[in-house]
Amino acid sequence: MYDNVFSGKFFFQGSFQELDIGVESGIITDIKKHINHERKILKNAIIPAGTDTHVHFRDPGETEKEDFSTGSISALFGGTTTIFDMPNNRRKIDNYAAYSDKLAIVRRKAFCDFGLYSMFTGTNADIISSESSGIKIYMGETTNAPGTVDFTEKGIQKINNMNIPVLFHAEDGKCLEKHSGIAKNLKEYSATRPPECEDLAIDKAGNMKFSKGVITHLTHDFTTAYVKEVTPHHLLLNYDMPLGAYGKVNPPLRSRETQKELLNGLISGKFNIVSSDHAPHIQNDKVDFEYSKAGIIGVETRIPLMLALVQKKILPFDIFYKTCILNPALLFNLKKGEIKKGNYADFMSIDFSSMERINDYRLHSKTPGSPFNGFNGIFPSIVVMRGETVIDNGELVADRMGKYLKPAVDKS
């Protein structure tokens, strides 16, 4: 009847309850106080595993920085069982052939479940793969993406008809050109990509009337009808910290005051999603600040950092749960993010008393250099994906079992 039955204190319908969870073929089929079956006892608090809607695993094309094996393993160790990978690979994922080739490569390597974005350049709506998990629009130049200037009404309608999330890298290209210049530190770099470039891009994005729009990695609060995403590095880091090139990211880190405003905005419920924007580079790309590449690692530390804020009573658990776990799954109509019948059995065991210092060299990304080295984090001791234990007491105990999860189309 059951493949597995898990027993423990699960976060279920808004509270932690002692329950037995019956699993068949990776799906939760039963939730009871007691199931008469051999049980796997899980200690500590059991919460649904996370979904990270914004990563760059660099595969294919730049696998010296990361590949889907190392990136997805890193995700699992951080309590994330599903990721969505961006399309700004060295070979841009902006047509059906590029998407199909990438999907074939990723399927052979993924340890966690995944989705893949396609890039919308404004004129390529007819050749974007219908299998795309989501669409990414780069409104200004960033790594491997030149920025999009023109959008046709016909193209926007075609994308809307796909009924999948549309994510914006919201920095206006012309504004970036206007402010471009040499930057030798994080504060100077912030001035070359100022908040006004975000404001202009967000205004333009709003005028495009995409039905499922998401503004990614906001560096300041902004009123928009779209879903608002923020990253741990913009919540916890600022340009006055001694991070050097390891803090260089697009959009840039801002002032300490702005960072605090962002964190307060998260605490008060102004943001919908916390994503990592995991974007690794080799160490040689981070030596000289002026010429260093923008991007930091973060898929493994996203949930542990937020859990540490919960334990310190800075961040309400409910906000953590919604932004890191529930809302990302709902955005893509995944059967994840909640303990309920019909959902995948994805969850993790958390000991809230096991706060530790993040150690860059104990993380599992191919590229070291976390700006959160020394920060407090709470890592899961056990991670279960589709009813199978994948992380057990700090060890990877499962082979590659990641699946491509094409979001269910929302007909509402």
Automatic annotation (TrEMBL):
Gene3D superfamilies given in the database record: Metal-dependent hydrolases, Urease, subunit C, domain 1
Gene Ontology BP terms: purine nucleobase catabolic process
Presence of keyword NAD: no
Cofactor dependency: Zn(2+)
InterPro entries registered for this protein in UniProt: Amidohydro-rel, DHOase/Allantoinase_Hydrolase, Dihydroorotase_CS, Metal-dep_hydrolase_composite, Metal_Hydrolase
SUPFAM superfamilies: Composite domain of metallo-dependent hydrolases, Metallo-dependent hydrolases
Residue ranges annotated for the Amidohydrolase-related domain, each copy included: 46-357
Pfam families: Amidohydro_1 (PF01979)
Domain of life: Archaea
NCBIfam families associated with the record: PRK01211.1
Protein name per the record: Amidohydrolase-related domain-containing protein
Organism the protein comes from: Ferroplasma acidarmanus Fer1
